Amino acid sequence: MGRTRWHSACIGTGQTLLPTEAELMTRARPDTDSEPERGLRALLSRFWHPRAYLLGSVFLVAGAIGGVWGSWQNICSGDGCPSIAQIRTFEHEQTSKLFSFDGRQIHEIGFERRSPVSIHAMPDYVPHAVVAIEDKRFYEHNGFDPIGIARAVFGVLTFRNLGGGSTITQQLARNLFDEIGFERRMVRKVKEVQVARDLERSYTKDQILEAYLNEIYMGRGYGFQNAARAYLGKNVTDVNVAEAALLAAILNVPAWYDPFRHPERAKNRRDLVLTRMAAEGYLTVDEAERWKRFPLPDTAPTGNVTSVAPYFEEWVRQILDDRFGAEIYRRGLRIFTTLDIDIQRAARASMEEGWAAIEGDTVNFKHPHYSEFDTVAKFPGSTPYLQGAFVALDPVTGHVKAMIGGRDFDQSNFDRARQAERQAGSSFKPFVYTSAIASGIPASFVIVDSPVVYPQVSGEDWRPANFGNDFKGPMTIREGLVTSTNMIAIKLGWEEVGIETVAQTAHRMGIRTEIERFPSTTIGAAEVKVLEVAEAYSTFPSLGTKVRPFPIIRVEDSQGNLLWEPQPERTQVLDSLVTRIMVSMLEDVVTRGTGANVRRAGLPFSVQAGGKTGTTNDGTDVWFNGFTPSLVATVWFGMDSPVPIFEVGPGRRQATGGGLVAPVWGAFMRRVYVGVDGDEDNGVAAQRPLLPMPDRIPLLPGLHTVLVDRKTGKLASRWCAEEDQYLEYYIPGTAPTEFCDRSDRRFRVPRGGR
How far is CA 212 from the centre of its chain? Predict the structure, then answer.
């Protein structure tokens, strides 16, 4: 039909026509009258003999073998084929393990998760299942199985699945050496066979099989140990026959035979493994049939891949990658971190309470809730729900005890504790007040809380306001900090101290982000990072010594040899007398100021604590940053895309650091120093204190203690109300010399007898 159509199509085209079938037959018919033809046939018949045919066949086969050998030599010449001299033993790539400060494992890092297990520790039916389904002649061949190859080829030609042609040793070879590759090419096969034969000459069958069981890719990790944990929730040493057969089934094509995604396929393949085990004599037929009735796992085990502090762990990984490179992914390093698992959990519990409280305010919170996105695997950019960050560190060593960089690491890897730059709000004010105290301005210095106007570069005037839009007249700078009065901080930082001095102080204390020299900087227009703020606030309890936050205590190799032991980076950046006065002022913030919710959250007065709230315009960013003598903690809440947390409008509640974040900070510190009472009705277990009650930050001998009037900042006298008298601390030479008098208290009745 084909020739006929072609012939017809060519008619009239001017092309040379192909001969018809009849013509071809005619032309092919021999001419019986041709003498030369008869002579040629006679000549050929003289040599056409079975023995000659046999010799020719042998010659052709030998030529083919020679060609293959030549190709082999060509492919594997020089460095063409990998050499097993690259490995002395089967040293599997091992993940590096991260431990908390007290030795509890918290995470593993590596290119490929492997947990090697000795073949002798596994039940016999584990390797039996693999041999039965993957390479039943494993103990008979020397790495290359011609029978298996022939069987595989025949299966391809007959469209039947008779198994692959690669032996277990060949599969191990291509898993051990990246140079072999996984492409379906003859070159790959040649390399694979060469390395397999070398492996068989150098190692025992058990060594090869053990290496295979620990190296093979299993879909949810490498090796049977990780596969057993991922699919079955147990160690490979504890699996039964049916489970061993399932693991052997999965390794063929892990994605295809995943029991949670394709249970029917997985069961059919598992049952085939059991049938093969019976055929090879590893099981009886009755045993195989009984194990076929064993159910498959229907849900993935929980708890085997959980991470207690994913943002912290990623920070550690980045540091190690910079220092050790690929070694951290291959050589099973032991990294002891600064993380305290219990403090981390306390931080998480407190943050969860904070998020729940904010999202629970249905009148004011109008953003999407986190729970609405539980099915989202990952956000390519910012998240649409409320976020937060948390850092807790030891102010002496800089050891980071807890860190939270967001609500969900899987959905967003962006670390808001280390990477996000957010406006500090009133969290910045302590840098202003520290600069003032350091320059000789006492805490009792009086500034008038009144409106100010500053021209801007744009030509417009900046008219800042206080929270609540009221002005209180003269007040000491201590009171200005306690009440977080904007006018006091602005006038102090811009007019009295100078913004350059303030910026330099902040940088010395630990703020590394750029600080613009504007009046608004004094009340927190500068953008900062949570971790840097925690570093800066560590200066207060350590009385002038800044410590660099760091997450690693030491790094060991797999044998326990010390590789790296970073030392705390401590720098004296402020005078101790200055910082001790600031400690007193920040204590006041927590005792009777904007941070009073710290105490209302349950932190007892027996725990010395100081800190500062922070709130930006319209409540877009809210903070609390504070310290005890033994712990510094910084907390931030906000949306990834900076917008007010609460809806803005008349009569609506504004989000503030004191209202939303101080309770979280207080609840955290209560968990740390007091513990949590049990609540059987609600299933809450009692928790012991996590840190001992700290000693108070001492008063320093160089400080002068003077009784002064809180309203005027002058020395106390009979004309000052007793309830306004308090002990103020002064650097020598800065104490007031005037007494409050009748003119200062013209509307007060003096106390009698004085």
Answer: 30
